[in-house]
Automatic annotation (TrEMBL), chains A, B:
The keyword DNA-binding applies. Pfam families: TetR_C_24 (PF17932), TetR_N (PF00440). Keywords: DNA-binding, Transcription, Transcription regulation. It comes from the Bacteria. This is TetR/AcrR family transcriptional regulator.
Length: 196, 196
DNA sequence: TCTTTTGCCTACCAAGTGTTAGACTAACAC
DNA sequence: GTGTTAGTCTAACACTTGGTAGGCAAAAGA
């Protein structure tokens, strides 16, 4: 058994654990809960993962990777270097991720501190990379002179977190479609960097 | 022992529990953890509270009450009925609350779902009242014709949640003072309702 | 003074926790 | 066929969980 191993069962465990962690929280989800939902016994879980923390990290790393990757893809498709377009694209991918991958988002937006020290540091670093992307964009917007912001750092947090919160309330069956949601958020973000 | 009872020890238990819930989470804080931090044994906790859930609800209700109350106070001091001033005041009190009462904020911004069904419903109702206050303000802004917003409901969530998130990152020792923070957020919120 | 209440204690309970040991079966490699 | 591996199982370990029973000392009320 290696870490990278991906079998049918281990993948099913991952999916199930992700769901349960997102719904009930990491602490109140037991190995036996996960195993039962997959149709095996608790002990068999340990054939696929070394510990409960390992699967948490495994899922967290994946989720952070997906978020970063979706932004990198969008970034690559960006033509020209108009920073406002980058801002729009960044917000768009953020909204889509948090609305579509709500369980993954719930994981990375909440208790990272259940991870071991190294893994926690790793997660914080990955999240920091992502945050820095937005900080650079906002700074570039301001640098054009055509936009202004009361404080770059705080504005970045505000944009990041109003986006992240989508995962906690968005309902695909609700009154707002994903398309509407992305354009609403794009507009809000653009307004936030509007000249004073 | 009644619910409303407030003694020295029970107050100390409340404070300690609030801290531990905010730091470690409700699930991973045991009655014995709380008791030990207060200097009593686990069993003595039950002299002051009927159950673990009771103290969670007790703290949650207080925190929601404090938030609502601080807004009601600010609202009462509002002169004139310029809705933009109300928006500024609402954001201001929200920022101050989430920056100063970070532990209380952490409690109400996370797992309300550990509450019993009735208490959960109560908490959601209280939060709903608070949210509706902002919704009314934003709607009033739009109604003047001098402001516009892509979508009232979503904008309300965005403002509410960028504010709530302050509790997770704000550091009083950090580079931004509370005064600066409030004016940054006021400005951001005002921009968000700027005419399109 | 006697009685009640307050506030804490020790000791316990039943259930659940993450995790390990060791055995078994089925499939695959040679 | 033989050896190895994957994947599961039962059983257990040591410990923690929320909560209870009942007792004991000090204070308060009569």
């Amino acid at each position: 058994m290696t870490d990278a191993r991906v079998t049918q069962t281990s993948e099913q465990i991952r999916r199930t654990a992700l769901d349960l962690f997102a719904t009930d929280g990491y602490d109140s989800t037991s190995i036996r809960d996960i195993a039962a939902a997959v149709g095996i016994r608790g002990a068999s879980f340990y054939h696929h993962f070394r510990s409960k923390e390992e699967i948490l990290w495994n899922l967290t790393e994946r989720a952070l990777g997906q978020l970063a990757e979706s932004w990198q893809r969008a970034k690559a498709e960006l033509s020209g270097d108009e920073p406002l377009e980058a801002l729009r694209a960044f917000v768009r991918t953020g909204v889509v991720f948090h609305a579509e991958q709500r369980t993954e988002a719930a994981l990375i937006n909440s208790r990272l501190n259940r991870l071991s020290d190294e893994h926690y540091a790793g997660a914080v670093a990955l999240r920091g990379d992502y945050e820095r992307e937005l900080a650079d964009i906002v700074a570039a917007c301001v640098a054009t002179g055509r936009h202004a912001v009361p404080d770059v750092r705080v504005t970045v947090y505000a944009i990041l977190q109003m986006t992240a919160a989508i995962a906690t309330w968005y309902d695909p069956e609700g009154p707002t479609t994903l398309d509407e949601l992305t354009s609403i958020y794009e507009e809000l973000a653009v307004k936030m960097v509007a000249p004073a």
